[in-house]
Amino acid sequence: KDDENVNSQPFMRWRDRFLFVAEAIFKSQAETGEIKGHYFNATAGTCEEMMKRAACARELGVPIIMHDYLTGGFTANTSLAHYCRDNGLLLHIHRAMHAVIDRQKNHGMHFRVLAKALRLSGGDHIHAGTVVGKLEGERDVTLGFVDLLRDDYIEKDRSRGIYFTQDWVSLPGVLPVASGGIHVWHMPALTEIFGDDSVLQFGGGTLGHPWGNAPGAVANRVALEACVQARNEGRDLARVGNEVIREAAKWSPDLAAACEIWKEIKFEYETIDTL
Fold first, then answer.
1. Among candidates 245, 253, 132, 109, which has minimal Cα distance to 194?
2. Which domains does the chain have, with CATH numbers?
3. pTM assigned to the model
4. Going by fewer Cβ within 10 Å, which terminus of the chain is more open, N or C?
5. φ, ψ for residue 178 (rounded to 5)?
6. What is the pLDDT of residues 35-82, one digit of tens each?
7. Which residues does the UniProt record annotate as the domain Ribulose bisphosphate carboxylase large subunit C-terminal (predicted)?
8. How many helices (H) and strands (E) does the chain have?
9. If you write DSSP's letter for every residue of 52-65 in order, what string do you get?
């Protein structure tokens, strides 16, 4: 993905970036026979410029773009969401700037409210915290975000911060994204917590592999498929998750190397997203 802070700075103009990355996407598709994507950041200083970048991505034939919905604003985001829907593009939503609003204990708005506003505005998936990793939040509170984003009907549950029953009727859902400081050892917990209808983004957890980007991607994919298979077999990932990863690492050198590099990585601080 593009970084949320990357739009069109002098060292990386947007059109050059779009062209170079699109070439890499098509090359990887030809080599693997699978659909690949990259979140092209269309966020810009004006709505007109934003739509121009979205149109360029569509003309290149790429499947997905992204938008910083809080810095861009809700009206701009809704316009972009409608454009993407009409033109067959997926829209990834980044929550850049949310911490200024939702991490203030004395004022501001909780991310639960910002997430619901995004669902009303439009988008296909949005960062929602990880429970584990760098963007950690309380498990129950984060699951409250997840349910409010993707379910049609959510029962009142104060333990998860849902203070009244929410009926979305026919409004489309939004997939939650777990991203930030996650790596292969987090895969069992992520599989258990977020389930199938979610997006797991491993940035440093891929690029930080000692053998390079492609082995990093292989390691993450092997770990994910091993965890999904174990879950489908009825195994308790909360209890045997590390064992599942170790078993898979025996026949995947890429995963074994990733397990070794990430085994001592921990983020130690108090939970951020709370009631």
1. 132
2. 1-126 (3.20.20.110)
3. 0.92
4. C
5. -100, 120
6. 999 999 999 999 999 999 999 999 999 999 999 999 999 999 999 999
7. 1-262
8. 12, 8
9. HHHHHHHHHT-SEE
